[in-house]
Amino acid sequence: MVEGVIVPTDVILSKASELLREYDTTTTTKTTTGRSDDDDDDDVRQQVKEEIVEDLKAEYGRASVDSASMAVKEAIDQHFATIAAGRPRPPAPTRKRDDGEEHGGHVKRARAEGKEAGEAEALQLELASGLFVTTQFYGGKKLLSLRKHFQKDDKWLPTKKGVSLATDQWSVLCSKVSEVSNALAAKDTGFACDLGGGGKRVTISDYKGKDYVDVRQWYQKAGESAWQPTSKGVSLSKDAWGKLVDHLEPITQSMEGGGGATPALKPAAAPVAKAGVAAPAPAEAPARASAGPTATPGEVEVALSSTRYLKVRENKNSKLADFREFYQKNGALHPGKKGIALAKAQWSVLYANLSQIDAALKERNTAYDLELSSGRRVRISDFRGKHYVDIREWWQKAGEAKWLPGKKGISLNPDQWAMAMGNAGQVDAAMGN
Description:
The structure is a single chain. This protein has about 425 residues and is an alpha+beta fold. The protein folds into three domains: about 10-85; about 105-255, Transcriptional Coactivator Pc4, Chain A (Transcriptional Co-activator pc4, Chain A); about 300-430, Transcriptional Coactivator Pc4, Chain A (Transcriptional Co-activator pc4, Chain A), CATH 2.30.31. It is about 35% helix and about 35% strand. The protein contains 13 helices and 18 strands. It has a four-stranded antiparallel sheet, sandwiched between helices. Helix 1 runs parallel beside helix 4 (about 70-85) and helix 6 runs antiparallel to helix 9.
């Protein structure tokens, strides 16, 4: 028995499925050998339910199973309905999506195959083995799905294990990323974040020493104030959560944009290590340096995330501190246009003011303004409740005094800024100071 922790619902449901498979033969025999009466069938099934629940409580503890009781009940009921009369259960004429909209079983099939016009997935990203985040259209609306998939005929197809978020719920999650990451780092299993109504929440769970970010649909029993988890949701490991955080920008762009159809999901190949790509760390974590994907002998390169680097490089015999976002092509990372390279004098101003910039970020002081040189500034920006250190080139229209932000620059989230700060001394030494 696991004591002192609430076991993730996904773990309990997986064990329940395993136990149900052990009961399949017995249950089918009883319901096809003279016990065809509905009441008799119900007696058999109720007995199996009780035995499975007791087995679960013996292994995971009463508190964990009670917290997942509704999800377990739904899973058991669905299992019995599926094997009734020894044949698959036909799809219901209509069912409710996670977002509350009704549709028939054929929509799910079309969505899985990515063939229904206007509802094809616009973005697909594998967070862990078989666990994908996808964005897709449904009824003219964009939805984000965090869902387990299975392989069939060289394709990844979605399972029922997952949760869908509407655009406003995704926006709330984005605004709470730092809070969730801090709670995950602190192992705060009391943390709970509501995603703007509808019963969808983010919590932190702990199982056998491993911590998870749980995104799930919750419910309340009639007349009770306590919230209970359902089977609609997923538990993200630290690595999966880190990968999701790393890709907030393209996911948000896909949710906000029109995004066309993409090919069906391919079976996952064996993971390929990307040299120098470090998992994102919480702001309080020790800084880590990395020999990045394009590093050459003598160069210093710090991984700020899996696609962003701070690199000291030379250009025309001058040292530059280059903050840059990379993209992947042919198995290698290449520098993109998004970023800014600071000359030695500009870097020196930034390095001398690290503490002030960090304080402004923590205070969410969007009035902070540090001039690195004429036209280059460090400011604190705010987007949908999230704050960033913005290092950017600014410009003025002819005859006007107002400064406007240019495209040349980069915004660092708190975790990326912490990585830059933690390795600033190494970068400063490489710059020749």
